[in-house]
Amino acid sequence: MRVFYPHAYCSRVWNEAVAHRLSTLGHRARRGDLVWLQEDSAESSLPQIHVVTDQEEQEEVYTLGHVLMPMPGNTVKYPENAMGAWYQERLSRDGLDGCRFRVSNLKLNLPGCHRPLLASPRNLSYQLQRAACGEAGGEETTGNSSRNSDRQLNGTTAEGKLTLTLNFDLDSSCYATICLREIMKCDP
């Protein structure tokens, strides 16, 4: 139980960092961002963190999909750009400016990790369901069909209300609420 709150705090900081990163540095990999080192060797070693250089930024070697954001902890490397300073300021606001995320008395150790800034859902499918006026059930349709001509602003049509069911898979530590926020472009 004692690790739930610290992990939740670190997740919140990570989410705030991602929002700040996108709003201030944009949608490209920038100098000082962190990425997994791309190696051509067939060795099976753990991937290494790499700091994007000026030249790599200019040549667009890495995309936003390669960028990693650190989850605060005692073993993570922080970005070497404005985001590194942002993390320091953010932790300082909560009195954690010198925190090493290790409390021996509580047997608490938060090493942190590096998460991809972006994740793409897999196995995405959807169903549009239309309920007939006054009925609880409805006719099911699947695919990309959409009849915008009879759709009104409140989501009802001549045949009834439309509902959308989405199914998709996400990697560990990726959450559906964030995915849905991006799809709908609103806060959950």
Number of domains: 2
- Decide which structural class fits the backbone: alpha+beta
**What is the CATH first-level class name of the largest domain?**
Alpha Beta
Helix content: 25-40%
Describe the strand arrangement of the main beta sheet, using strand numbers. 2-1-3-6
Task: Tell me the number of helical segments per DSSP (H or I, 4 or more residues long).
Answer: 4
Catalytic activity: a uridine in mRNA = a pseudouridine in mRNA
GO cellular component, one term: nucleus
GO molecular function: pseudouridine synthase activity; RNA binding
Family: Belongs to the pseudouridine synthase TruD family.
Strand-helix topology:
Elements: H1 4-25, E1 34-36, E2 49-51, H2 54-58, E3 67-71, H3 82-93, E4 102-103, E5 108-109, E6 113-116, E7 122-130, E8 139-142, E9 156-157, E10 160-169, H4 176-184
Antiparallel strand pairs: 1-2, 1-3, 3-6, 4-5, 7-8, 7-10, 9-10
Helix pairs in contact: 1-3
Molecular structure report:
This protein has two domains: 4-116, TruD, catalytic domain (Pseudouridine synthase), CATH 3.30.2350.20; 122-184, no CATH class. Helices cover 26% and strands 23% of the residues. The protein contains four helices and ten strands. It has helices spanning 4-25, 54-58, 82-93, 176-184, and strands at 34-36, 49-51, 67-71, 102-103, 108-109, 113-116, 122-130, 139-142, 156-157, 160-169. A four-stranded antiparallel β-sheet has the order 2-1-3-6, with helices on one face. The protein has a four-stranded antiparallel β-sheet with strand order 8-7-10-9, with no helix packed on it. Strands 4-5 form a two-stranded antiparallel sheet. The longest helix has 22 residues, at 4-25. Pfam families: TruD. Belongs to the pseudouridine synthase TruD family.
